[in-house]
Amino acid sequence: MRKTLRSAAFTLTFALMAIGALHAQQAVAPPPRPADSGPSIEKTMQFIQDNAAEGKLNYTAIVTDASQQGLGWSNKFTVEMSNLAADAGACRITYHWRAEENGKVVDDADYSLALKDVKEIMVLSQEQNQNQIDSRNGHPDWNSRIAPSLFTLIARRPRGVVNVFLFSDEEMANRVAKAITHAVELCGGGKDAF
Asked: N or C: which end of the chain has fewer CB within 10 A?
């Protein structure tokens, strides 16, 4: 009888251990994700849609070339961003961009910005932006002055691709930059894969 009781106790212990092991192997739900701080993606994208396109902006770039004893010239620009749509579900901003230089159309196309692809957001004066562009294009001695002052929001993506938004007001440029940065975070962008 003792042998039977020991055998039964052993069987019961083994059965309880097996049940415990099976229970321990069941998938456990991950801890709840902390609530995102800041506005929802829908509210953020609505703010971007309402504030990122100022319409038509006119400005003059007054350029001097230091390598040519201060040789100078000016170019008149008209730029217009229209049909801006910020799609919260797709995490994408689309818009139409039209630019004229001295009355000649130099760009007239639809553009798209997938927020998950954005690596960096920055705001520069249009003078800083133009001088960086000229330097990259082999003209480090060119210096541009922009009248009236404008501010450029730049969204950098891989391989040097950028989307730009122009503003007459620096404060609004910075507010939209903050909103786009938040949207990029909510959409899983801003990170390198490795």
From this structure: C
Residue 61, helix vs strand vs coil: strand
What the block records as the tokens of 142 is: 């060119």
Q: What is the CA radius of gyration of the chain?
A: 29
**Long-range contacts formed by 56-61: CB under 8 A, 24+ apart:** 56/80, 57/150, 57/166, 57/168, 59/126, 59/146, 59/147, 59/148, 59/150, 60/146, 60/147, 61/130, 61/144, 61/145, 61/146
- Give the predicted TM-score (pTM) of the model: 0.78
Look at residues 121, 105, 125 and name the one whose alpha carbon lies nearest to residue 113: 121
Q: Which of 178, 63, 42, 41 lies closest to 130, judged by CA? A: 63
pLDDT at residue number 69? 85
